[in-house]
Write a structure and sequence with these properties.
By secondary structure, the protein is α/β, with parallel strands linked by helices. Helix content is about 45%, strand content about 15%. It is globular and about 50 Å long. About 40% of the residues are buried. The model has no long low-confidence stretch (mean pLDDT about 95). The structure holds NADP nicotinamide-adenine-dinucleotide phosphate.
Length: about 240
């Protein structure tokens, strides 16, 4: 399989790349930093891309995927959290950055790939429970993930030849949780205390564990109506 992954330098993206490479697939990845892991195969290519720079994102995608005719799967995984705080304290400027990376950059990547004439079988965008739960303090991240779900639904409507899904991966112990779990208690972000309690338990696996769970559910994901939002926690094991 040819698999294209955004946000390959850490967390879920890096573990996805390692998992696909270990089963003999070819991986194309982008992020600002290169991956830190020693991957189990040399069958991968990398482009250093800042997705907040849309022209750079287009050029980097074109360079990375030049000569590729078919992608079996695109993981729109790259994302930023931003600072957790009340809407009233979050500036439009900071939320705009979150929105640029978590939403518009995915439009740039998809439009670039399709304009290159690449045949794409499946697209999975890494969404979040934050897209729908409206927890206090998640400001631009929640808004961006809700918009990402709709972006995926809209592309699904215009591209029936490609299967699309926005997937909430559940809680995963990555750099995002390092930030969240270091926050002091505050009434402006009550859900943070639940995440701190989940860390180190089965409810918050590391990225490798989360990726094995996600990959085990891929046969179910491809059977969902294209454009669906799915939460991995709602699939039975
Ligand atoms: N961890 C969780 O509990 C959780 C829960 C729900 C959803 N998610 C979603 O899962 C996805 C992966 O997150 P993670 O938990 O694995 O966090 P992570 O370890 O922080 O990984 C985020 C990835 O996105 C890339 N990225 C961020 N900004 C970028 C930019 N401007 N340009 C290019 N790449 C950029 C990062 O690479 P560089 O910094 O090198 O650019 C990194 O590879 C995100 O979409 C996140 O919203 C995570």
């Amino acid at each position: 399989m040819n698999v294209f992954i955004t946000g390959i330098s850490s967390g879920l993206g890096q573990s996805l790349a390692a998992a696909y490479l270990s089963q003999g697939d070819t991986v194309f990845g982008l992020s600002r930093r290169p991956p830190t892991m020693d991957f189990p195969s040399e069958d991968w290519s990398f482009a250093a891309v800042d997705l907040a720079d849309f022209e750079g994102a287009k050029a980097g995608t074109q360079e990375l995927l030049g000569g590729v005719n078919q992608l079996d799967l695109i993981w729109l995984n790259a994302g930023v959290l931003g600072e957790l705080k009340d809407m009233a304290d979050a500036t439009i400027k900071e939320m705009q950055h979150t929105f640029d990376v978590n939403v518009w950059a995915n439009k740039v990547v998809l439009d670039t790939v399709f304009a290159m004439g690449i045949d794409v079988k499946q697209v999975v965008a890494m969404s979040s429970g934050a897209a729908v739960n409206g927890n206090r303090g998640w400001n631009g991240y929640s808004i961006a993930k809700a918009a990402l779900n709709m972006l995926i639904q809209l592309y699904a409507a215009e591209r029936p030849g490609t299967h699309f899904c926005a997937l909430a991966p559940g809680l995963v112990d990555t750099a995002m949780q390092d930030y969240i779990c270091a926050l002091p208690p505050s009434e402006s972000r009550p859900s943070v205390e639940k995440l701190k309690a989940a860390r180190g338990t089965e409810y918050m696996p590391g990225p490798d564990g989360a990726v094995s769970r996600i990959l085990s559910h891929m046969p179910k994901i491809i059977k969902l109506p294209s454009g669906s939002f799915a939460d991995i926690r709602l699939f039975s094991e």
